[in-house]
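Researcher: Predict the fold of Drug antiporter protein.
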Amino acid sequence: MSTAPSPAPGTTRRALAAVYAAGAGSAVGTQMTTLALPWLVLESTGSAPRAGLVFAVSVLPMAVLGFAGGEVIQRYGARRTMVVIDFAQFVAIGSIPALAALGLLSFPLLLTIVAVIGVLGVPYFAAQRDLATELAGPDPKALMRANSVLEGCFNIAALAGPAIAGVLIATLGADKVLLFDAVTSAVSGLLLWWFVPRTRRTEPAMPAPQERQTPDHSGILAGVRALLRDDFLRRVMVTTISFGFLMRVLMLALPLLAFARFAGDARVGGLLLSGFGAGAIAGAAVSYLIGSRLSPTMVFGLAAFQLVLPWWVLLFDVPVPVLVAALAVSGAALPLSNAPFFSILATRFAADIRAKVIQAVMTISNIAGPLGFLAGGMAIGRFGVTTTLLVLAALSTLAAVNLVVALRHFDPVAPTSPQPEPEPEPAAAAAR
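Model: Structure tokens for Drug antiporter protein follow.
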């Protein structure tokens, strides 16, 4: 196994900055492609069902292959995984406008390329969290700040990416927007390759047979098993899955609320969604500022109630600014809950299983999401938007209570691993 020395503090700061910059650029490009791909299909075929099929194919790999992502990260390391994916996505995304310009882009070929892009994206975000954890170190507060920055990058991209894409599609065309995303992937890969050093943890050598994982840490479901064995996280995951499900119901209900209560005014629907997104950006900044002052568990518990209590305001016939303000407060709680949660995960598991645990959490949440959209649509259609919001607020409050009860029994543990004891290493390596 490699015994590369630990990076110097200055190198670590530059490496973390590279992870942030790469994550921000990649996230903006991905959000732009989310709009540009179906738009390209609509321009070329005029078929809304085909555009929907493209979107479905892009997100299906996470639901089908999500648990396998942790296996990839564990085998090849977070840094290597991200660099390879970035360069592969540069080729895959860039091939779409190139083939279209040559008149060779059939719809089945487009679906195949989109599926490849979706598969490449499966381990990417868990690898990003794992790499930030390796660079930030074991301090929970430092990890919370690092995760806060990543949350901010994603939320800014979610708000700005589609808006930028809309302007560029109108002026340059959807295919040029895809080229922009391809370039951001290449730049992301270069940043990570150049500024993030190879270390023993991020670039593990293939272990000898007697050093390989125990069966408990092997297999694509190892992360799920680790979560189920942890009494604290098993209860927390009930809340995490509930929020992943209920958040999708809320996102579906907001435009329908605007339609039903404000005479079909689409501008109100846009304001409600934008208020939530703007709040998430502000919450990431607040999370970073308080990350060194408050414990992750305290922030996690407070953020759970901050997320759900404003949803009760949606039940009342109040002016639009009040609704927007309530949703902004709720949106700010997202990074305030995600950042400490990922920090807790990172400090609770050893490096040989951490990536699989993070990937398992993301996959389970993503599986719950589509079910939320489906159940929300059925509930609103049968009971109306106000009744659905009432049930939503009640269930989310119960989920928050469950989380706080779990946090009261939080037991900090040192990351443990059932692996055999390693052979003694030279002093320079052991000092890592």
